[in-house]
Design brief:
Blueprint: E1 5-12, H1 17-30, E2 34-37, E3 41-42, E4 49-57, E5 70-75, H2 78-83, E6 88-97, H3 117-123, E7 128-131, H4 133-140, H5 146-155, H6 162-172, H7 175-190
């Protein structure tokens, strides 16, 4: 593929946004692509908004994805998916964790949180894959692997071979948690290409 592939990851601090962005960058490089990744945008401590852009292809000049050009937007929670939805291209996909983390700025006014963000995105004719990744991660025994479930979903939309993903996980994830992260990744990879997945 001659085209540059553009992906945006968005969530809040503590959800592992930067880890899965790094894993994509490493996997793309291992597959022979030129890769550019942004530094963190936003506040990376727990609770602050975090985004990371990853671009790969034959030759990539800039790490920044422009609005309307993302092949995939991965939202680790609903508000962040909504905030970055305008980056997706018409034939792209928005992968959303059906999970809510009200930002500090909302405070007690929880009613201001866009609880119907997924329905709103679908109503705009966007290709949305929504799944309860946090709940499934809890079922696996560790809520922290929700990010890996979402990365597994994303992997099936990209031109990176499964064996490269496997090697990348083995290289980057510590041995003590590799099996769990691999299980989460494979779970995500097994349920993709559905318009919406409910618990």
């Amino acid at each position: 593929m001659d085209e540059t592939t553009n992906v945006i990851f968005a969530g809040v601090g503590g959800q592992g946004v930067l880890l899965i962005a790094e894993l994509l960058a490493l996997a793309a490089a291992a597959a022979g692509h030129d890769v550019k990744q942004t530094e963190v945008h936003g506040v990376s401590q727990r609770g602050g908004a975090v985004e990371s852009h990853v671009r790969y292809g034959p030759k990539v000049w800039s790490p920044l994805v422009t609005p309307g050009q993302a092949h995939a937007v991965v939202g680790l929670e609903k508000l962040e998916a909504l905030r970055f939805a305008h980056y997706v291209r018409p034939d792209g996909v928005i992968i959303v964790n059906d999970y809510e983390i009200p930002p500090a700025s909302v405070g007690a006014a929880v009613a201001k949180y866009p609880h119907h963000a997924i329905e709103f995105l679908c109503s705009k004719g966007l290709n949305v894959v929504a799944l309860p990744a946090t709940k499934w991660a809890e079922d696996l025994g560790n809520v922290r692997v929700a990010n890996m479930i979402l990365l597994g979903v994303l992997s099936t939309y990209l031109d990176i071979p499964s064996e490269v993903w496997e090697r990348t996980l083995e290289t980057r994830i510590p041995d003590r948690i590799l099996a769990l992260n691999r299980q989460a990744f494979q779970l995500g990879a097994s349920i993709t290409h559905r318009a919406s997945v409910k618990a």
